[in-house]
Amino acid sequence: MTFSIEQLLNEHSNDKFDLHEQFLNNQMVRVLKTIGYDRHYKKAVGQYLYDQEGTEYLDLLSGFGVFAIGRNHPTVIEALKETLTLELPNLVQLDVSILSGLLAKEILKTTPENLTKMFFCNSGTEAVEAAIKFARFTTKRDKIVFCDHGYHGLTMGALSLNGENIFREGFGTLLPNCEAIPFNDLVALEKALSSKDVAAFIVEPIQGKGVNVPDDNYLPEVERLCKKYGTLFVADEVQTGLGRTGKFWAIDHWNVQPDMICMAKALSGGFVPVGGVAITTKIMDTVYNRMDRAVVHGSTFAKNNMAMAAGLASLHVIHDEKLVENSLTLGTKIVDNLNAMTSRYELLKEARGKGMMIAIEFQSPKSLKLKAGWAMLEAANKGLFCQMVTIPLFKEHHILTQVAGHGMNVVKLLPPLNLTQKDHDTIVNAFDTTIGETHKMGGAIWDLGKNLASHALKK
Predict the structure, then answer these.
(1) Comparing 1 with 218, which gets the higher pLDDT?
(2) pLDDT at 1 over 90
(3) Are residues 91 and 238 in the same domain?
C-alpha cells in the first residue's frame, strides 16, 4: 500500500479541530472557536492564506515572523527538493558538512565585523540557551540580566529570562542569578552591571511584546557599559533579524557591535526549523578550547542538510527580492498613514515600529460615552479593546493579526516582507474603517465588545 500525505489530508479535511481537541491542546481550539478564527485553511501563497471556500486572507502574523519571505516560496521549495534528491550524507556527526559551512559564511557576511563564528541549533530558544552557556563559560560569571517584558523563549533557561510572568508562573524554580531591569533604562543597566558579576546582558533591540523601540542612545550605551564592566552584550534578533525592521539586523539602526546575535524564525523560510548564534572568535575559542571539548555543546539535528539548504535559499530570496528595502519603504508608509489617523480618532494613540515590525497602540478616550465603554472593557480584562479591533479585522476584512502581548492595548503587525502597495492600501483602509466603527457607541462593534467583556468576566 502506498503512503500519501495528500490522501490523508483529503480524508481528514474537516477533522483538524476534533483531532486537536482529542489528542493535542484543546484550549487552543476553544480560543479559536470563541473569537471566530476557526477556519479551515487549504492553501497558502506568499502573504496570503486561503480557506476551503477560497476566501483570501492577508496574513500579518507570518507565523510570528517565520514567513518573512512569504509562505511556500518556490525558491526554497526547489532547494529542498534538490537537497532531498541528491542523496547527500546527512548528520554523519563524526564529520562536518559543506552546507553548514556555506550558510555560516553567508550569514557572517551580514553581521558586524567582530562576529566571525557561527553556532547552529534548531530554534530561537535553543539559540538563547547557547548564549547563556557561552556567556557563563567565557566570563566565568553566573549572572544574566534581561529586560522587563522581554521574550527569549520557553525552555527553562530562556524562560528564566522571560519578562512576562504569565509564561513563568507555575513552572517552579527557574535558573538562578537572573535579574530583570526596565527596558530602555541605562541607569538601571549600569547599576546591575556595576557589581562586575554579570556574564551577559541579553536584550531584543526592539521588544516583540508591545513593539517597544528604544531611545537612539540606548543600544550604543548598552555596548559601552557592557565593555566597561566586562559583560557580554547579547542581541536577541530571533524576531527582529533578517530584514524585519528595514535593516538586515535591527542593531544596524544603531551601528552597534554585540558579542553575540541570536537568530532563528525567518532563517528557516518557514520549512525546516533552524536557529543560530553569531559569536566572536574569542567566545568560540574559549568554549571549544580543547579537542576533548569539541562536542561540549551542540544539538543532534543542528546543521542538518535540509535546514541549512532552507537557510541558504532564504538568504538568497531576501537579497534577490530586496525584501529588506521593501520592509523599510512599505513599513514606513504603513506607520505614517496610520499615524495620520490620530487626529480623527481619539482612541488611537499612535503607530510605531521600524520596517515591518509595527505596533498600533490605543488609549483611553476623552469623550464620556467612549470613556465609559473603554472602562467597561478594561474592568473585564485589561487590553480587551484590541480584541474588539482584531476580530472585525479578521471577519470583515480578512486580515489576520494579533494583540501584541498580555494586558496591553496594542495590536501588532508582523507581516511577510513582500507586501505590495495593494496590501498597504488594504491594511490602511481596513484599520481606518474598523477604528472608525469603534468611535460609534451602540454599533455592532460595541455589541462585540460587550460579549467579549461578558465572556471575560465569566472566566
Answers:
(1) 218
(2) no
(3) yes
Q: 105 and 50, same structural domain?
A: no
**386 and 355 assigned to the same domain:** yes
Q: What's the pLDDT at 456? A: 76
pLDDT at 459: 63
Return the pLDDT at 450.
87
Q: Residue 453 above 90 pLDDT?
A: no
CATH for 249: 3.40.640.10
pLDDT at 442 over 90: no
Residue where a domain stops, chosen among 320, 352, 385: 320
Assigned domain for 2 exists:
no
Q: Which domain holds residue 376?
A: 16-69+323-458
- CA dihedral for 158, 25, 304, 295, sign (positive or negative): positive
Q: Looking at residue 266, what is its pLDDT?
A: 98
When divided into structural domains, the chain yields a total of 2
Q: Examine residue 412 and state whether it is found in any structural domain, yes or no.
A: yes
CB neighbour list of residue 207: distance below 8 Å, 6 or more residues apart? 147, 149, 150, 151, 183
Q: What is the 3-state secondary structure (H, E, C) of the chain?
A: CCCCHHHHHHHCCCCHHHHHHHHCCHHHHHHHHHHCCCCCEEEEEECEEEECCCCEEEECCHHHHCCCCCECCHHHHHHHHHHHHCCCCCCCCCCCCHHHHHHHHHHHCCCCCCCCEEEEECCHHHHHHHHHHHHHHHHCCCEEEEECCCCCCCCHHHHCCCCCHHHHCCCCCCCCCEEEECCCCHHHHHHHHCCCCEEEEEECCCECCCCECCCCCHHHHHHHHHHHHCCEEEEECCCCCCCCCCCCCHHHHCCCCCCEEEECHHHHCCCCCCEEEEECHHHHHHHCCCHHHCCCCCCCCCCCHHHHHHHHHHHHHHHHCCHHHHHHHHHHHHHHHHHCCCCCCCCEEEEEEECCEEEEEECCCCCHHHHHHHHHHHHHCCCCHHHHHHHHHHHCCCEECEECCCCCCEEEECCCCCCCHHHHHHHHHHHHHHHHHHCCCCCHHHHHHHHHHHHHHHC
Cβ-contact 232, 226 below 8 angstroms? yes
Choosing from 300, 320, 340, the residue where a domain stops is 320
Give the pLDDT confidence of 47-75 residue by residue, as tens digits: 999 999 999 999 999 999 999 999 999 99
pLDDT per position as a tens digit, 86-143:
999 999 988 999 999 999 999 999 999 999 999 999 999 999 999 999 999 999 999 9
Average pLDDT over all residues of the chain? 96
Q: What percentage of the chain exceeds 90 in pLDDT?
A: 92
Same domain, 30 and 108: no
